[in-house]
Amino acid sequence: MKTTQATTKTASPELSGGFRDGFRVDRPNVADGAALWRIARDSRTLDLNSSYSYLLWCRDFASTSAVARTEDGRVAGFVTGFLRPEDPRVLLVWQVAVDERYRGHGLAGRMLDELVARVDRDSELGVDTVETTVTPGNRASERLFASFAARHGADLTREVLFAAERFPAEGEAHAPEVLHRIAPL
Prior knowledge:
Mean pLDDT: 91
Structural class: alpha+beta
Distance between the termini: 16 Å
Number of helices: 5
Helix content: 25-40%
């Protein structure tokens, strides 16, 4: 159970739906699923899931995910995540992407900050850890999560979670997935 201090947090203007620098961060909805799929596809970095999975994600994991919207309502970027069932104080960030047209505005870091604050505020136990996996060489993700840890005064540890040989041998080879664990928040 959250402490009294954690349950009395107030939302900043950004968390309550206001626009800042032309963008607003909020929860995704099913209508956003196709945009998330397109942004993931166009990133040429993320593992692309089926369009169906993005629709489900926007329906079933909206409370632990975020989108950045332009003032005209377009999805400029997204963060998908979930609370780990075995440890619900851990927010696992699944994917982060920003549409190429909107890069350079700090949206990835802003979405991550606002998502973690919202989930910490809204979840029963709060969030004390963020986890994600990053493939070696994905410098943008490595910088994003290192800067998140620094902004929040948290430690960042890394270890291989899934070695390359764990992935199916058929098709394209998959690099190892390195777990980045950021704690305590």
